[in-house]
Amino acid sequence: MHDSYRHPAFERTLVTFSHVADRIGATGARERRLRTYSIERDAYAWWLAEEQWMRTPGKRRRTAAIAGQGRLILPGAPSHANRPRYPRDHRGRADHRAARIYLQMQRDAAARAAARPAAAA
């Protein structure tokens, strides 16, 4: 009676999820999503900080950079506090796509810098 339940469709195979993902072209989808969502969160935090800055009373002019002096990095401040002004388009409206590209370029540069010493050693 036990053999009557055996069916070829329910037999174990050597196929794994990674083989199926390779076959359908979905390999690395989770990692891509994690990177994308992380950039989205950072861009949103940057935009919220920009909105908060725009709503502060008083002068809202950003000071021009003085030649020969670097940007002041405040320890303990959130990472979006040490970024330049949020990108704007030709109409002066927030350019969220440019902000995501800027963040992606920063991450790529940091990854290359982190990989460089390991390759030299």
Descriptive tags:
3 helices, 121 residues, mainly alpha
Q: Strands, helices and their partners?
A:
Blueprint: H1 17-24, H2 29-54, H3 96-120
Describe the protein:
- This protein is an all-alpha fold and 121 residues long.
- The chain is 49% helix and 0% strand.
- The chain has 3 helices and no strands.
- The chain is elongated and about 80 Å long.
- The protein starts with 16 loop residues before the first helix and ends with a helix.
- The relative contact order is 0.09.
- The model has no long low-confidence stretch (mean pLDDT 79).
Following the backbone from N to C, one meets helices and strands in this order, namely HHH
The percent range for helix content is 40-55%
Main beta-sheet annotation: none
Give the percentage of residues in beta strands.
under 5%
Average residue-wise pLDDT: 79
Pick out the low-confidence regions.
none
CA-based gyration radius: 25 Å
Number of helices: 3
Gap between N and C termini: 65 Å
Count the strands? 0
What is the global morphology?
Answer: elongated
Secondary-structure class: mainly alpha
